[in-house]
Amino acid sequence: MTTDQLTSAIAAYVSDTDTAARRTRAAGLLDRAIASIGHLEGVDFNLEQVSFSLTASKQSYELGADIMTDLLDVMNIQQLWRTDTMGWDVSIVGLQKFSQVARKGTATGPPTHATLYHKGGVAVLEVYPIPASAHTMMARVKRRVIQLGDIPDDYHSLLIDLAVVYIKAGDDPNMAAALLRDGIHSLQSESLTSWTGSTIPLARHLGQGSATTRASSTNLRPE
Q1: Domain ranges within the chain, ordered by starting residue
Q2: Residues 113-132, buried b or exposed e (16+ Cβ, 10 A)?
Q3: Whole-angstrom Cα distance, residue 15 to residue 77?
Q4: What's the order of all strands across the beta sheet hosting 74-82?
Q5: DSSP string of 10-63?
Q6: Which of 81, 90, 112, 119 is the most exposed place for a label (fewest CB within 10 A)?
Q7: How far apart are CA 183 and CA 175, in angstroms?
């Protein structure tokens, strides 16, 4: 469906008697729905595998500047692994856990742990041990949904449904509260090192393990 078709479909649910006002509100609701759908869990239309290289003796990397320079819309990284050897996943943990392992550490070699955090509004990937040589890495990233073209046609009807829910929430405090809870949950779950199921991305865990799974407040990864 086109933006105009979706706007018209949503406008049919808007109660304003003025046609122009209905379409204006419908357009705003569509924009909100587009932004929301990119945060859904369990969908893969905005997931992509990318490769990048770590540099010898360099421990910290800015996303979009040092690595993934052609991807300025990365929301999070869901998995990270080396490409030169089988079964070498890099486990991403919270900053506190990473600090316990790596702060003031001087070990060099292939990275086994990483953390992600914001510094000056920029997402930073930090790895440990410190790479002794260049390593080619593969990452599974989740890209931001910015416009309608980022969403497959199969999801377009959901945009209408979401917009209608937003309209109904204006008259239903319980529904409005539920939307707020969902929004807060989405915000928390997409922190740089929070849990997302079987993997841990930049928005949850970047690694996959094979031993017993145990979660703690600072380290949601298989250990």
Answers
A1: 3-42+149-197, 48-143
A2: bbbbbeeeeebbbbbbbbbe
A3: 41
A4: 47-54, 135-143, 74-82
A5: HHTT---S-HHHHHHHHHHHHHHHHHHHTT-SS--TTEEEEEEEE-TT--EEEB
A6: 119
A7: 12
- Amino acid, res. 74: V
Q: List the structure tokens of 63.
A: 């996303």
Phi/psi for 46 (5° steps) reads -110, 25
Give me the tens of pLDDT residue by residue for the chain, a chain 223 residues long: 899 999 999 999 888 889 899 999 999 999 988 988 877 766 778 888 999 999 999 999 999 899 998 887 787 788 889 888 777 889 888 888 888 888 888 899 999 998 888 888 888 999 999 999 999 999 988 888 889 999 999 889 989 988 888 888 877 677 667 655 665 555 555 555 443 333 333 433 333 333 333 333 333 333 3
